[in-house]
Design goal:
The protein has helices spanning about 15-20, 40-50, 80, 100-115, 130-140, and strands spanning about 5-10, 55-60, 65-75, 85-90, 120-125. By secondary structure, the protein is of the alpha+beta class.
């Protein structure tokens, strides 16, 4: 997949990125293409873009957005004050899965983390996503923690 281009997402990418999330039957995030929801997506995009520790990416193939992911750098007192890279919201267009796009996106994250001297790269995955778990393990990730969430809205 030599013509895959990973770049920082732009505001103009929002419709394509939202469509990726809205088409995900397992996500359960309530994402929608409804125009009334767009201002909330735009506000979130602007918050991410303004943060020095977060980046939203688009994976583009022949000028079309086919994937996305978000990274967050965090520093903790644990690990002797080391930094971690958290990967979030990894999504490949449904009809493009199995073509190496997801692997290229994750490899991009790992290379960036190495360049920045990060100690740990971590991500979470919906417990129902067994194919995704195999995918992450194939890339070298190991299941290590049990996550908990509390929905507030």
């Amino acid at each position: 997949m030599t013509n895959l281009f990973i770049r920082q997402a732009r505001e103009a990418d929002l419709p394509a990125l939202i469509a990726l999330f809205a088409s995900d039957p397992l996500g359960g995030h309530g994402d929608t293409l409804d125009a009334e929801a767009f201002p909330r997506y735009l506000a979130a995009f602007n918050t991410i873009a303004a943060s020095p520790d977060q980046t939203l990416y688009a994976a583009e193939l022949d000028g079309t957005v086919v994937g996305t992911f978000q990274t967050m750098f965090t520093t903790s007192l644990t690990g002797r004050g080391s930094s971690s890279l958290i990967i979030e919201a990894v999504q490949t267009r449904n009809d493009m899965r199995g073509q190496g796009i997801g692997a290229k996106m994750i490899e991009y994250c790992i290379a960036d983390a190495r360049k920045r001297g990060v100690r740990l790269v971590q991500l979470t995955s919906n417990a129902a996503r067994k194919d995704a778990h195999r995918f992450y393990e194939r890339l070298g990730f190991k299941p290590s923690h049990l996550g908990f969430k509390m929905a507030l809205k």
